[in-house]
Amino acid sequence: MHALKKNRPLRRIVLASAATLSGMVMLLSLKPHASPQAALALPAPSGSASASSGTGGTGTGTGTRTVTGDTIQTRWGPVQVRITIKDRRLTDVTAVAYPTDNPRDQEINSFALPRLRTEALTAQSANIDTVSGATYTSDGYRQSLQSALDSAAG
Length: 154
Hints:
This protein is an alpha+beta fold. It folds into 2 domains: 1-30, no CATH class; 36-153, Sufe protein. Chain: A. It is built from 4 helices and 5 strands, in the order ααβββββαα. Strands 1, 2, 3, 4 and 5 form a 5-stranded antiparallel sheet that branches. β1 and β2 (64-68) form a beta hairpin. The N and C termini lie far apart (75 Å).
């Protein structure tokens, strides 16, 4: 006996509804992905970007140096951080670039970036924990932070 027989309209309705619901869930779980060229053209979300790209920095003569890490391409967009080091101590970490393409990206990063910053300042290194729900951003943040620390040390 076939599941969609004409004499069982309720079964047909239930199966059609389940298939429609499954299709809608799959469609809503898809996230649009920007092309790499469009992602690189995004303006820096938190102020103006530094001209240095991980190899330079600015010093004031008092042991303060600002270095911008490499831009790390993640699944959802670029992540880049800028650090300030004063007297061989990490005093500030700022996310220069991070995914902001849609409200979900903005929600995730408004939650994750302050935690990543606090962890980096506490650890004084790139050895920081991943923020749950922001795995790709956390990985990109950690890699960019390490490149900035490496540039500042060398």
